[in-house]
Each structure stands twice: as C-alpha cells, then as structure tokens.
Amino acid sequence: MARITLEDVQTECKKHKWQCLSTEYTNLKTLMQFKCDEGHTVETTWEKLRDKFICPTCKVNVKKQIVNVSGKPKTKEYRILALDQSSHKTGYAVYDGLNLVAYGVYETFKNNPLDRIADVCDWVDSMIAQWKPDEVGMEETQYQPGNGDGHNVFKLLSQVMGAIMITCVREKCKVRTVLIPTWRHHCGVKGNRRADQKLSAQRLVKDWHDISVTDDESDAICIGKYFADTHGRNCIGEFD
Hints:
By secondary structure, this protein is an alpha+beta fold. Helices cover 42% and strands 20% of the residues. It has helices spanning 6-15, 46-49, 56-59, 62-65, 113-131, 150-170, 180-187, 194-209, 215-229; strands spanning 19-20, 31-35, 41-45, 79-84, 89-96, 99-107, 135-139, 174-178, 238-239. The strands form two sheets. It has a six-stranded mixed beta sheet, sandwiched between helices. Strands 1-2-3 form a three-stranded antiparallel beta sheet. The longest helix is centred in the middle third of the chain and has 21 residues, at 150-170.
C-alpha cells in the first residue's frame, strides 16, 4: 500500500470542501488542524477524519441541519413561511416565532412561464399543507429600469406574486408583502449593486446562524426575519 502524503490529505480535504491547515503529516495518528466548509478549525487526526468529515461545531448547530426538511408539527409559536419569489428558483424560510426552523429552494424546470407559475403555486399549496403557517410573507416586485428586459421581468414576477396570493387566500392562509428596500434596511443588507446586496445577505445569515446558504435562501431568510421581527405590527402591503 502506498504511503499517504500530505498532498493526499490536502486533495481529499478539497473533495469535501475542507482545508488542511497543517503543513506536516507523519502518520494516521498525527494530530493535525483542518478547516471545515463553514470555516471552523478542527483539530484531529487523519485516521479519525478521513472516514467521516464531521465538524464538532457544525454537528451541534441545529441551523446547519434543517435545510430542506419536511414539515414539522405546528407549535404554539406564530409560524411564518417566507418566500423570495421567482419564476425559476424560489427561496423559502420557515420561522416559528423568531426561530428559523427550515430553509431551502424550490426549482421548476418548465419552459413556459405559465407552467412555471402553476408549478410554483402547486408547491406553495403543498408547503401550506405541510407546514400550516399562520401567514405567508413575500417581497413585492420591483421594477429594474436599468435592465433591457425589465418590463417583461417585472410583469412575470407580478403575475407570480398575484398567483401565490390567490393560492394563499384559497387555502385560508394570511398573506403579507413587503417592499424589497424595507426588508433589506431592516436586516442591515448593504451594497448599491444587486450582486453586492445578495452577498451582504449571505454574510448576514452566516453571522446570525453560522450557515452558508445560496443567495435565494439568504434572501428568504432575511425576508422571514423581517416578518418575524415585525409580527404584530403593521406591515407594508398587509393583506387581511
């Protein structure tokens, strides 16, 4: 059997999105330092790590484990299903009170816009059935004047928003909307460009929950935080 080298350890770590911080490797029982995919330093031996890339810090972080989970039983807490609306990828987050209990992304692959809208509404309907939220909260559409296709995008997203609202009403679920600048300001999202704002939201979620998420998920988590924090107050665009 070929002798394991430091380069072998480094290569294997990269496959798991980890880093090997140590600069020397002697044998399987050598105490070494690694960095997990969430940036935590882990001190262990290659013998223990190579079979199970488990970070002790991530292991006890409940938020790290809740992505894409199925519905949980309703608690006494006010439950909010937050949506980052899109006709392709829809980020979502579920809050019980102020506590984030689920997040993820729903993606539809239909080519026809109306078929995609129907898919998203069917999915929202299933999420309401699974999670039984007290309300669905989502951002309002915003026209992007600098985009050559801005009118068509605005029109499509407005249709998505309207269809989701009708779905909620039919399921007797309260629905609220919020302006994009409002939830971004509330959460402390920074940046002038859309890309910078997306990255800022991801960094905020990392700070709050110590999890790395996609930009669709981070937006939904921030939107959910806005509605969770302002529950009981008058929300912009409230529909009762």
